[in-house]
Amino acid sequence: MNDDSTSSQQLLRAISTSSGNSKRNRVLMITLIAVAITLLGWWLWPKSNGAGNGGYLTEEAALGDLSVTVSATGNLYPTNQVDVGSELSGIVESVLVDENDLVKRGQILVRLDLSKLNDQVVKSQAAVLAAQAQVAQMQATVKESRASLARLRQVAILTGGKVPSRSELEAAEAAASRAEANEANARAAAAQASATLRSDQTNLSKATIRSPIDGIVLTRKIEPGQTVAASLQAPVLFTIAEDLARMQLQVDVDEADVSQVKNGQTAYFMVDAWPGRKYPAEIARVGFGAQTTDGVVTYKTLLNVSNADLSLRPGMTATAEISTANLHDVLLVPNAALRFTPTTKSAPSGGFVASMLPRRPPQAKQVKETSSAGSTTRTLWVLQDKKSAPVEVTVGLTDGRHTQIVSGELQASARVIIGMQKSAK
To answer: What is the pTM of this model?
Structure first.
């Protein structure tokens, strides 16, 4: 009885163990089959994905418009800006204008204290009167000496040269010449006094500082009661802009782009104060003098700007886009096509296992590139019958995304290769 029971238990354990092994074998077999299918699909996927175009990414060469622009940054300035100073030293008596005031040419801006200047003018006027009186006195002396000389000469004629003596006659002639010289000296002194008076009157007029132009006051740097010291350098009291309705934008054009920028080209610019608004402008002058900042060479370029609504202000920072070329209905290709170079691949041998082993990287074909007289010859690759074929072309301008094809065998609607399709291998 006990032997039968033991035998039954051993049989059940054997059956259970056999059943567990069978299940594990089936799971292992299913896992291996799934892995094999996955590897096969991974190996075949790139070939099936590139079956339509040979594994290349292409884009169509097409006719279109090309706009080439040059970017530059700078600041806005008035067309004419004047710093108003003082030639005289003195105390400011009154200031008649403030910032943002519109002024006319000749309008009084500042008056200095006139006390000393008025006294100097009065003193100079007195000196002129004294000089004029001295001239009159010298004129009377000349008249007297000439009359005395004339009487002596007449007496000499009447007496036959006996009276007066020769020495008396020469003394009278010398006195007359001396009187004439004194008159000339007095006249010179009178002229000097008159010049001094005019200078003092000019200084008096300059103590009243006037606007040299029609415009608007940008800055004011003086207050009543301040002392103006103009002995070494004329101090700047005001800065006046002539006409803010017309302004200039000064930008720095990079040396790589300056050959494309010319007088008369159109442009637009934007400022941070008015986001999204584009202001038109026109190139007025491209400078020949170079400026170097942090090793970067630029050339100052001036653009004329209309500011009729006075929305722009001096000193604003602007970013300009200068239109250097606008082409219509020209053959264009993407720039990626000019960078593409096909690779030469050797067919793998040894089956699936060999294909999994590392191989030497494919070598790129050498592409010839030549340039002459401002044009560049390049090689494009086009898709023909699912294969790449080279085409020699001459390229022109580019906007950074597309390039103009000037000449060559490339036709519109041709499929130019821009890259290879990504593969999972």
So the answer is: 0.62
